[in-house]
């Protein structure tokens, strides 16, 4: 961990000097927005800044679904497990996606190409079961459609490497 770096995180912390503990959640949100996830270093620094242990900060952060503790992959899959999507087969989809990507919800593949997040409802229940990839919504996803989406992502990755 670097104690002496200066950068955007330092600026966020400096802007919240003397911030009360109630500022913990907004601070976590701001740093996640900046870095895409909450690293161990960021958690420790926020803790020191607010006078809280890193364990306390981590404990609070894990209570909320919105926080991630690993960087997102190039393709971030958000699979809905809300009621409407559940009724339409999202459980089967979750099994298929974890098998195909080799990761569990909240994880990022080692090559950082894929990451997976499970959410409660994306507000698109009419599209159930719904899957968003980098914010783009896919409706009525079947395991076959899912495998085509994954293939398309992989093809995009190949194109990126060749570019
Ligand atoms: S339950 Fe899946 S979008 Fe609402």
> Span between N and C termini?
34 Å
The string of secondary-structure elements, in order, is: HHHHEHHEEEH
Biggest sheet layout: 4 strands, mixed
Overall residue-averaged pLDDT value: 88
Query: Got a strand count?
Result: 4
Q: What would the principal axes of the Cα set say about the shape?
A: elongated
Strand content: 5-15%
List the total number of helices.
7
Low-confidence stretches: 158-163
Class based on secondary structure composition and strand pairing: alpha+beta
Identify the strand order in the major beta sheet: 2-1-3-4
Describe this structure in words.
The chain is of the alpha+beta class. Helices cover 48% and strands 11% of the residues. It contains 7 helices and 4 strands; from the N terminus they run H-H-H-H-E-H-H-E-E-E-H. It has helices spanning 8-15, 24-35, 40-50, 54-63, 83-87, 90-101, 143-162, and strands spanning 75-80, 114-119, 131-133, 136-138. It has a 4-stranded mixed β-sheet, with helices on one face. Helix 1 packs antiparallel against helix 2, helix 2 runs antiparallel to helix 3 (40-50) and helix 6 runs parallel beside helix 7 (143-162). The longest helix has 20 residues, at 143-162. The radius of gyration is 18 Å and the shape is elongated. Residues 158-163 have low confidence and may be disordered. The structure holds FE2/S2 (inorganic) cluster. FE2/S2 (inorganic) cluster is lined by residues 80, 82-85, 121-125, 128, 130.
């Amino acid at each position: 961990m670097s104690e002496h770096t200066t950068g955007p995180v330092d600026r966020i912390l400096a802007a919240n000097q003397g911030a009360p503990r109630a500022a913990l959640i907004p601070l976590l949100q701001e740093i996640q927005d900046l870095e895409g996830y909450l690293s161990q270093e960021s958690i420790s620094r926020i803790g020191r800044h607010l006078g809280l242990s890193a364990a306390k900060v981590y404990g609070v952060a894990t209570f909320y679904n919105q926080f991630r503790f690993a960087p997102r992959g190039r393709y971030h899959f958000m699979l809905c497990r809300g009621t409407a999507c559940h009724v339409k087969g999202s459980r089967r989809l979750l099994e298929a996606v974890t098998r195909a990507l080799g990761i569990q919800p909240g994880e990022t593949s080692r090559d950082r190409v894929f990451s997976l997040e499970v959410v409660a409802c994306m507000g698109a229940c009419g599209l159930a079961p719904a899957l968003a990839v980098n914010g783009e919504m896919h409706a009525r996803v079947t395991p076959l459609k899912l495998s085509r989406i994954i293939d398309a992502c992989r093809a995009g990755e190949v194109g990126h490497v060749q570019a």
